[in-house]
Amino acid sequence: MDLSPLPQLSAIERISPSFYSTSVKCMAGAAWYQFGPQDSPPVATGAILGSAFHAVMEMANRGAIPAGNAGLAAAKEAFDRQAHFLFDRAHPLVRIKFGLVQNVPYYHQRRSRAAAMAAQASNVARRTSETHAARMAVTRSTDKTLRRLIEARLTSADGEISGRVDLLDCDEGRVTDYKSGHAPRAGADVKGEIRQMRLYVHLALENGYFVNKASIIRGDGTTVEIEVPEVQAREEGNRARAVRQEFNAAVAGGRALLDLAAPAPSTCAGCPYVAFCEAFWAKASPEWEAVCGAHAEGRVLGIDESALAGADLATFRIDCRRGSTLLQQLIVEQVPREWLSIGSRLPAVGDLVRFVQAFRAQPSGNEQRPILRVDRFKSTTIWIVTPVAVS
Hints:
alpha+beta
């Protein structure tokens, strides 16, 4: 595939919780998501499943999932509908790799879990609605504290912060954010999630809703709740405003996107923009591989053709000069030819290419050079940096 040009930056009128939490780690990553083309890089399949999960939970929180087996079937149908919609519009490489959205890793597991969680949440929503209606009838109240907001966009009083909350329950004094993945491993950095949740609480308070708790409910059913005193929420809001001002000042000062990058192993781990980020390639080293995976940039020395189970494959010999893996001659094994068909042309001998999200395997047979392998589950991509020189 061809590397996309870097997006041009402009000032942001409002900062979102996701932009804020990402920019604390790397402002370039936040800006890339905000201003970059939506079809490049190929979206991770987890984002497709995450959106489908959110669609189902939104229905559930509105009480739109019926009880019993009919509810489970309705939730699964809603999950399928959203997942198919996004898969049909996904990057061509994603569709080539998996063929059908049902072949996406963990599709059926996430679908079943979403349906079970939705059925339970919908029951809660119906009971809550009935309680609210009875209370309103008795008190004849229109007090905001009796309201339950679902997928509501909230904006701060000064207009500088705006975000969409998945669920805000004022009776419980809680905002809830849904995340489709599993609970993070022990010791994982969850500071970004905490910042986001505090900012959601701040937005709720700014709009007159009394909230002092925040919950994260994950696709595996785990729930984490934190207390968020008003002073903490206000401080988080002020930090978000400062980040917005810092970003806008950088744009006004003429700084380009890559000037805002903060490459480091933990920052770059899982970043979808590694292929485009010159700051990463300038700083990465083999010591980063354990944390952020194997990414290799090198000149193509040779390409060998083969076939396996009816699929045409290409094995690359490259002279790896930069990246987060061994800097020497490497073999990149068994790349499906179909994966290379996206873009203006196929990689050729002499091209400078980047293999992103590969993994290192043990050499076998008489091969002594280190081996990288591609993995469709890891969203491995291959990019042409410069074409072969024509003499």
